[in-house]
Model the fold of this input.
Amino acid sequence: MMRTEFHATKKPAQLDIEGDLSFAHVSDLHAALLTACDAVDELVVSLDKVTSIDAAGLQLLFAVCRYADKSKKLVQIVPGAASERIDRILEFSGLTSPNCLAGDIAQ
Amino acid sequence: MNELGSPLETFREEARELLEQLEQNLMQLEEHPGDHDSIDGAFRALHTIKGSGNMFDLDDLVGFTHIVEAVFVRVRDGKLPVSRELIDLSLQARDHISRLLIEAESGSRDTATSERSRLLSMAFEAHLGDEALGASGRRSDEQDAAAPKDSEHQPEGECTYRIEFTPAADSFLTGANPLLILNELAELGTILKIGYCEAIPDLKEIEPEHCYLRWVILLTTDHGENEVRDIFIFVEGSAEIKIDVIDEVDPLIGESGYKRLGEILVDRGEIERKDLESAVSSKSYIGEVLVKKGFVSEEQINSALKEQNYVRDIRENRRTVETSTTIKVKVEKLDELVNLVGEFVTMHAGIAMVADRKNDQDFRAAAEQMEGLIRQVRDLSIELHMVPVEILFSGYRRLVRDLSEDLSKQVQLKLEGTETELDKNVIDSLKDPLLHIIRNSIDHGIESPEVRKRKGKPPTGTLRLSAYYSGASVVIQVVDDGAGMDVERIRQKGIERGVIDNSDRYSEQDILQLIFAPGFSTNEEATNVSGRGVGMDVVRRNIEAIGGSIRIQTEKDVGTTLSIRIPLTLAIVDGLLSRIGDSLYLINLSYIVECLDLKDVRTAGNGGDMIDFRGEIVPFLDLRSYFGVEGVAGEHPQLVVVAIEEKKIGLVVDALLDKYQSVIKSLGKIYERVEGISGAIILGDGKPALMLDVDRLVKVTRDEVKK
Amino acid sequence: MSAVSKHDGETVETVETLGATAAAQAEAADTEKYLVFSVAEEKYAVEVVRVEEVIEAYGITAVPRTPSYLLGIINLRGRIVPVLCVRRRFGFEAAVTTTDTRLVVLQVRLGEELVSLGAVLDAVHGVVDISPSDIEKRPSLGNSGDQHIAVTSIAKFENELLLVLDADRLLTKEYLDDSYQHLGQTGQTGQTAVG
Done:
C-alpha cells in the first residue's frame, strides 16, 4: 500500500509518502514526484510515514537527488521516523546515502 | 618470536624449513599425484623462498626458483600433470636451491653451480609449454593474480573474492531482488558491499522499474568459487558477474599491504593501464587526478579505496590471528621449562615432607592442593615438549627413495601412526638409529625385484614405519617384507667369535641380539651403503641411552620387524622409592608388576635361585649383595617383580617407601659405566638418590641364570 | 672464592688466614691465584680459575659398583656432581671427616668434556697469589706413587713449598677406565659413607 499527499501551499512545499516505498509502487510514486518537482522550486519529501523500502524505492530517491542537482531546485528528503529503516537499507546495499537526504540522518 | 640474529639469518633458517617442506610435499605427490594440498604446499614453499630471496637480492636463487614456481603454477592450475619425471626434476631443483642458499651464505660463486642452474632451468622451461615466462623473475604478482581464471578456485583456508555484480535492468521485475543475493553472499563469510548508484538517471529520465544499481562485493570466505557462483544461479543468464580472487592466505609471507589504488582500478577494468600511467606522472593524489581527467568516477575511486582498506584489514587481521595461534619457541626454552618444572616437583616433595612431619592439617591440605596444580603444569610442559613422529618418519622418504634407486630395488615406504607423539629430545636421539635400521632393511632385507619375483613376492618391497602407544612407552617398528635374517648363520658366527658357545640354551632372540654386538655382521660382502654391520652396536647404544630397548622378529623370506620401545618422556618419572642398606633407590613404576613380602614367596629352581611368582618361575636378584651392601638385611625384605617386555625378574630390597615423582638427572660421564643405575633424582630433603636401571638388571639377571 | 659455603649458598665461614695476604698481593702484576689445601699432611695448590666453589663435605650419596676413590654424588643446587676422595685417589687411607674437611668443586677435563668434579680434601687454607717465576716444573719422579701423578710443578710461597695440582690429571679417562676394568675383575665396590 502506498499513498502520497502533496501540500503545494506549504512553505516549502511538501510531499508526504506513506506506506511501502517499494517496487510495486515505484511507478505511481515516480509520477507523484515528477508532478511535485515540476510544480515547485523548493520541495520537501517526507518519508516519515514510510513503513518499508526496497532497492527500487531507494533508487528512486537517488533519482530525485540527481534531478535536484541538475535542475538547481532545492529538494530535501526528510526521513523522519523512517530514518532507521533507510539507514538499514543503505548499509544493506552498500550504498552511500543520497546527497539530498536531510541531515537528521546519521552520517 | 624469532631470536635469530640478522634478517638474512632468519631467511636462511626459514628457507631450510621450506625446502624440507617442499621435499615432503614432493614425496607425497609422488605417491598421490593429484593431491591438491601437496601441490599447494610445494607451490607455497617455492613462492615464499622466492619472495623472501627477493628481499635480500639473491638474484640467482630468485631467478631459478621463479622458473620452478612457474611450472608449479601450471601444475596447480591443472595444466600440467604430476609425473615421476617432474618429481625427479623437482627434487633436483630442491637440492639445487639448497646449494644456491649455501652459496648465498658463503658469498662464493661456483661456475659449476651456474651451469647447473642453467641446465635445470632449461629442463623446467620445457614444462612451461607455450606459456611465456615473465621477463624477470623478480616480480610475479601479476602472474599470481591472474592465475586462476577459467578453472575453479579451490581455496585452502580463507580467501577473498572480488565479485563484480551488475544485475539485469529488469531484475526488479523478474523478482530477482539483488539485495537478497547480497544477503546470501553475506552468509558465506565476511563481506564488504560497495554499491554503485552513479548509473541512476535523474527523475525525468528514470524508468522506475528498471534496475540501475551495480555492486562490487568483497567476500572473504573459505567456500569455493563454485559455491559463490551458485548464489547467482537464478540471475546468471541476465546479470553480469565477474569473480576474481584478490587475496589468499599465503601470498608472500608477512605481506600486510595491498595493491595500489590504480592497480585495483586496472584489475577491475575500470581504467586503461595507459591512462593510469599517464596519471601517475603528475604529482597530486592519483585518485584526484584520475577523477579530474575523467578516467574514473569518484564513486569508482571510493570503491577502490574501500577494497584497498578491506584487504589490508583482512591481511593484518590474519597476521594477528596467525601469530596468536602459534608461536615459535626455541627448543632450549622448552627444555628449560621442563627442567624448572622438574625442580618444582622436587621442591614440592620437600614441602610435602615437611607438612607430614609437622602433622599440620592445613599445611598438608595446602601441599596437596599444590600437588594437583604442579601435576597440571607438569603435564602441560611435557605436552609442549611432545612432537608427532611424523616429523621423524617423513624425513626418511627421501632416503628410502634414493637408496632403493642406488641399489636397484623397488621399495614402497608406508607410514603408520604418524600422529603418535614423543618427547622432542627422544625424537632427536632416534634420528640416527632409525636411519641405520632403515638402511640395513633396504640393503640387506629387501631383495632385488628379480629375486623377489623368483620367490613369488611382488617385485616392490614394502618398508613400514609405524608408531603406537603401549603403556608409558611408545613402540616404533621398522617392518620389511624382505629376506629375513638367517638365525643359524648368526649363531654360527657367534660361536666362531666366541661370543656364545655351541649349546642350545640361547633363545632365538638372544642370537638375534648378537647383531648389536660391536663389529658383528653376517653379510660377507660389504656394500657401500651399510658396510659391515654398520653401526648396529651404535644403534643399540643410542636407544639404550634414552631408556629404550630393541627387539627383533624375523622369518626367512617373510621379513624382519625391529621394535624399538622407548619411554614417552625422558624428563619426569613416576617411581617407587625403595631402601637398600642406607640408600634409597627409585624404581620406575611402569616396570613394576607387583610388590610382595619376600617371606610370602616360595623359592624354586635347584639352587633356590628362582622364585615362584603366581605359578611362573622367575629369576631374582638380591640388590643388597649385587650392590655390595654390608651388614644384614632388614626385617621384612620385599620382592618387587618387574618386567621388561614380559621378561620378569624379582628384585629384593630392604623396604618399600613411597611413590615418588621426580626428574631424572644424568649421573654424568664418570658414572656412565656403572651397571644397574640409570640416573639420579633429588629427594625432598635435597639429598640425591639413585634410579635403578631395571632394563639392565633384567638383562643381567636373566643372563646370569642362563649360565 | 675464599668463602666457604654450604650447598645452598649460605656462607658459614670465611677463610682469612691466607686470604688477607692474597688480597695484599693482588695488585702485584703477573701473578696467578691459587687455592691452597692439604691432603695427608702435604700442602697443595690448584689454580683458582678451576675452582667452582668450596663447600662442606656432607650430603654425599654413594654410588655402588664404582672404584673406591669415587665417593658418590652430591646435589649442588639441582645439579648432580660426582665426588672423589683425593686421599684415596692418591693412595692413602681415607681420613675421618673433621670440621676442616672440605669439598672443592673443580672444573676438570675428562676426555673431550669439561665436567664438574667434587674433590674431598682434608682442609682448605685459602687463596694466594703466586708469580710464575716462583713455580718450577717438577722433574719427573718416575713411579713415585699415586699422589704425585697429578702434581706437575712446585711453587714457592712464603718459605713454603706447595705441590701444584693439575686439575685435569686428578682423574683421567684412562685411569677411570682402568679402575672400572679392575673393579670388574675383583668385584670390589666403593660403598663407603662419608660425612
